[in-house]
Amino acid sequence: SDVYKRQYQRRVRETPLATMSFFGSLFGSGKPKAPPPPSIDEAIQKLKKALEIMDKKILRENHKHAQLTANIQKIVAVKKSKARTDPKVVAGLKRIKMIEKDIGQLELQRMNVEVRIDSLENAEISKVMVDGYKTAKEAHKEAGLDADVVDDIMLENSELMDEGDEIRELLAEARGPMADIDEDDLDDLYSELMGEGETEDVGGDAIDLPAVGNVTPVMPVAPAPAATTTVAEDEEAEMRALEAEMMAM
Predict the structure, then answer these.
(1) Contact at 8 Å (CB) between 72 and 95?
(2) Cβ neighbours of 61 (radius 10 Å)
(3) Whole-number Cα distances in Å, 24 to 7, 14, 19, 32, 113
(4) Residue 99's CB: how many other CB atoms inside 10 A?
(5) Residues in Cβ contact with 51 at an 8 Å cutoff, skipping those fewer than 6 apart
(6) pTM of the full predicted structure?
(7) What is the largest CA-CA distance in the chain?
(8) What are the per-10-residue average pLDDT scores of the chain (249 residues)?
């Protein structure tokens, strides 16, 4: 028998662990897997179920309290002062005290459950917020937004806008003969032309005015429209000719 025992022990030592694990699970010697932990929502639903049970319990206890109180009042109404020593009254009073104690404990338990539910609901809200932040972070990374990159883009756009303004200013600058004209020379020329115009208006032959006493009232007559139109056309023609001469210089 010792020989067989040593042979069995040697075979056990030589047997692979995977084979032993297979036979162990086959014959039920393996450890059972622990169930997954409940989710926050499952825990909240279980606690709400406990609240419903406690509410029903409190309702029943209050009903018993009301019944015992009514029975004691009936006995007191019949026996008056002797009702205090009545065994039914004494037992009813004790029962009422026990019910009141049970109701008080249930109310405290109910309050604790409500606090726990509020805590779990806040945890659920926090979890949703954290998941939302994680999703937003991943989306932000996926979008490839970077503060330095955005700053470079905005700086490049600003430089392009400045370059465009500079190009427009260069294109708007006067070049060639027109660039050499001084504004002071233009002012002097304008003043000179204005002075000659006033001289021409004031000069000319003197007009003899009749004496005041010999003046015969004459109704004013409006000037002929054709003459006014002719003068305006002559002035426009002179201006066009002057502009043509300036452009040809």
Answers:
(1) no
(2) 17
(3) 21, 16, 8, 12, 43
(4) 19
(5) 110, 113, 114, 117
(6) 0.44
(7) 176
(8) 62 53 50 79 92 94 92 84 80 90 94 93 89 84 74 85 84 64 71 64 48 49 51 70 63
